[in-house]
C-alpha cells in the first residue's frame, strides 16, 4: 500500500500541476513520484484527492470538528453539482472543480486520514494536512494562535513541532482541544445512559431466566435462579471510552491536558462525575472498550456524544491502537474552524488588553446580540438575531469590529484599487450592524502578509465621513529569525491603532 501526505493551506487555490509538489511519502518524506511521467502522476494524485474528498462528504467528516466554535449552522455537504465554472465535488473541507482541475481549501485546518481505493484497485493510505496559509512546516502562526487562545500561562511554542515523533504534532493539540469542548457540550445533557444486559444469580429473579447458566450454577437446586435483565445505566462502553481517552491524553500530552482540562473546567467536572458512577472502569481492557464503541450514537437526546465518541477513538488510535481494518475507507481526523480561532485569538491577544487600559474605559462585548423580529403589524411572526463579533463601548458611543480571516481582505490591503469587489459583502454586513445599534463606525480586523509599502489602515468614506475602518494585522514572513518578537510588535501596533481610532473625533 502506498502512503501519501497532501499538505495544503487554508483559503488557497491549487492546480493539478501543483499537486505533485505538495505530495510526500509517509515513510521518508521525499517527493512521492510514482512514475517518470509527471503528467500521469499529477492526474493520479488528482484522482486520489477526488476520491478522498468524496469520502469526506459521504462520512460528513465536518461533524468531527471541534465544537463550540460555530454560532451559525453549517451547510450540508453537497453532491456533485454544476457551477458557472464547471462540475464541482463539494465538501465542507474543500471543493474540487473537475472541469478546471482546481482545488479550493476552505476555513478548516487540521489533519484527516483514510484509505483510498482507485478504480484499478490500487490502495493508498492518505493523510491530508491543512495548515495556515501564513505558515511553513514550523507552524509558527498557527502555534501562536492556539497558544494565545487556549493555553494561557503555558508556552506551547517550543513544544509544538510538525513532524517529530517525540514532539507534539498539530493534531495532538487539536485532539486535546476537541476532547475538552466536545465533552463539555455533551455534558450539558448529562452523562450518557443506555440499556445494558446484566447477568444475575440470586433468589429474586426479575428478568428473563437463563436456563443454560441456571443448570450450570444451581443444579442441584440451591434456592437461586440465573436470569438476565436489561437496565438503563451510566456504566456503559461510551463512558468507559471517555475515561480511557482522558487517561491517554494525560499520559501522552500531560502539559496541555493539565492546562486545558483544569480543575475549574466543566470538562474536569464531567470526568469526576463519570468516575463516580463507574468506579470499575479500569477493569475493562482498552481493546474491549474500542470494539464495543464502534456503533454510532443516534439517540436524539445524546446526539452531542457522537462527535465525542469519534474523537475518543482517534485519541486511542494515536496511542498506537488499531481502530480500523486496512481495507476500511472511513475518514478519521480532527479539524478546526480557523476563522473562529482567529476571532478568539483577537479577543485574547488584542481586545482584552485594550479593555484593561487604566486611563480609558473600554467595554468590549463578544458576539453582541442584535434582536430582529418580523411582524404583520399586529403580532410577531418570527424572530432572529444578528451577532457582530465585537462591540466596543467608550464614553457612551459604540463601535463595531468583525474578525475576518479569509484571504479577500489580505488581497484588498495589498491591491486596494482592484480588490474592493471581493470585500463588499463584508462591508455591507458590518455597516448593517453599525446602523442597527447606532454605532459611530464599524470595521474589520484581518491578518495579512505585507508585500508592499502600504499602510495597515484604510477607511471607507461617505460624504466625507469615515464610517468604516479597515484594520490589518501584519504577519511576519516565516523566515524571520525573530518571528515572535516581530509578531508581538504587530499586535501592539494594532492595539494602539484601535484605541487611536476610537479616540479620534470622526
Task: Give a concise summary.
The protein is an alpha+beta fold.
What does this structure look like?
This protein has 506 residues and is an alpha+beta fold. It has helices spanning 16-22, 38-59, 140-150, 170-187, 211-218, 237-252, 254-260, 266-277, 286-291, 305-318, 338-355, 407-414, 424-437, 483-503, and strands at 2-9, 13-15, 23-25, 81-83, 86-90, 94-97, 102-105, 108-117, 123-131, 194-202, 208-209, 225-233, 332-337, 363-366, 370-375, 380-386, 390-394, 397-403, 441-448, 457-462, 465-474. The protein has three domains: 1-133 and 324-337, no CATH class; 138-193 and 234-317, no CATH class; 357-503, Trna Endonuclease, Chain: A, domain 1. A hairpin with a 3-residue loop joins strand 5 and strand 6. Helix 6 (237-252) crosses helix 7 and helix 6 (237-252) crosses helix 10 (305-318). Residues 27-36, 61-79, 161-167 and 321-327 have low confidence and may be disordered.
| β-strand amount | 25-35%
Q: Distance between the terminal alpha carbons, to the nearest Å?
A: 64 Å
Helix proportion range: 25-40%
The neighbouring-strand order within the major sheet is 14-17-18-19-21-20
Unreliable stretches: 27-36, 61-79, 161-167, 321-327
| Largest beta-sheet characterization | 6 strands, mixed
Structural class: alpha+beta
How many domain units? 3
Amino acid at each position: 500500500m502506498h502512503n501519501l501526505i497532501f499538505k495544503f493551506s487554508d483559503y488557497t487555490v491549487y492546480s493539478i500541476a501543483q499537486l505533485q509538489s505538495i505530495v510526500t511519502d509517509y515513510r521518508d518524506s521525499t517527493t512521492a513520484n510514482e512514475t517518470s511521467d509527471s503528467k500521469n502522476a499529477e492526474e493520479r494524485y488528482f484522482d486520489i484527492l477526488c476520491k478522498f474528498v468524496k469520502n469526506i462528504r459521504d462520512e460528513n467528516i465536518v461533524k468531527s470538528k471541534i465544537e463550540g466554535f460555530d454560532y451559525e449552522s453549517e451547510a450540508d455537504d453537497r453532491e456533485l453539482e454544476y457551477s458557472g465554472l464547471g462540475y464541482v465535488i463539494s465538501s465542507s473541507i474543500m471543493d474540487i472543480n473537475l472541469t478546471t482541475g482546481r482545488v479550493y481549501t476552505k476555513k478548516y485546518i487540521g489533519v484527516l486520514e483514510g484509505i483510498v481505493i482507485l478504480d484499478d484497485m490500487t490502495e493508498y493510505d492518505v493523510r491530508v494536512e491543512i495548515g495556515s496559509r501564513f505558515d511553513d512546516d514550523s507552524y509558527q502562526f498557527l502555534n501562536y494562535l492556539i497558544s494565545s487562545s487556549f493555553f494561557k500561562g503555558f508556552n506551547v511554542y517550543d513544544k509544538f513541532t510538525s513532524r517529530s515523533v517525540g514532539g507534539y504534532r498539530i493534531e495532538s493539540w487539536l485532539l486535546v482541544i476537541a476532547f475538552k469542548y466536545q465533552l463539555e457540550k455533551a455534558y450539558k445533557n448529562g452523562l450518557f445512559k443506555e440499556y445494558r444486559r446484566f447477568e444475575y444469580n440470586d433468589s429474586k429473579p426479575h428478568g428473563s431466566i437463563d436456563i443454560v447458566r441456571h443448570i450450570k450454577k444451581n443444579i442441584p437446586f440451591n434456592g437461586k435462579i440465573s436470569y438476565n435483565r436489561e437496565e438503563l445505566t451510566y456504566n456503559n462502553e461510551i463512558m468507559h471510552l471517555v475515561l480511557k481517552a482522558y487517561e491517554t491524553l494525560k499520559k501522552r500530552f500531560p502539559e496541555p491536558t493539565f492546562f486545558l482540562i483544569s480543575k475549574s473546567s466543566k470538562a474536569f467536572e464531567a470526568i469526576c462525575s463519570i468516575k463516580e458512577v463507574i468506579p470499575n472502569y479500569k477493569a475493562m481492557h482498552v481493546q474491549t472498550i474500542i470494539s464495543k464503541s464502534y456503533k454510532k450514537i443516534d439517540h436524539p437526546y445524546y446526539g452531542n456524544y457522537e462527535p465525542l465518541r469519534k474523537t475518543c477513538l482517534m485519541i486511542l488510535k494515536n496511542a498506537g491502537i488499531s481502530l480500523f481494518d486496512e481495507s476500511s475507507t472511513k475518514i478519521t481526523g480532527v479539524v478546526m474552524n480557523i476563522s473562529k480561532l482567529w476571532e478568539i485569538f483577537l479577543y485574547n491577544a488584542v481586545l482584552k488588553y485594550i479593555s484593561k487600559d487604566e486611563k480609558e474605559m473600554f467595554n468590549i462585548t463578544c458576539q453582541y446580540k442584535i434582536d430582529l423580529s418580523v411582524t404583520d403589524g399586529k403580532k410577531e411572526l418570527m424572530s432572529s438575531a444578528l451577532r457582530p463579533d465585537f462591540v466596543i463601548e467608550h464614553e457612551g458611543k459604540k463601535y463595531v469590529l468583525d474578525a475576518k480571516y479569509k484571504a479577500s481582505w489580505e488581497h484588498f490591503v495589498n491591491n486596494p484599487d482592484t480588490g474592493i469587489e471581493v470585500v463588499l459583502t463584508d462591508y455591507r454586513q458590518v455597516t448593517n450592524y453599525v446602523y442597527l445599534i447606532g454605532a459611530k463606525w464599524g470595521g474589520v480586523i484581518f491578518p495579512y502578509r505585507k508585500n508592499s509599502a502600504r499602510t495597515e489602515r484604510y477607511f471607507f468614506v461617505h460624504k466625507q465621513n469615515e464610517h468604516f475602518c479597515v484594520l490589518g494585522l501584519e504577519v511576519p514572513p516565516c523566515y524571520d529569525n525573530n518571528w515572535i518578537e516581530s509578531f508581538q510588535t504587530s499586535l501592539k501596533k494594532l492595539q494602539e491603532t484601535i484605541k487611536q481610532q476610537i479616540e479620534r473625533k470622526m
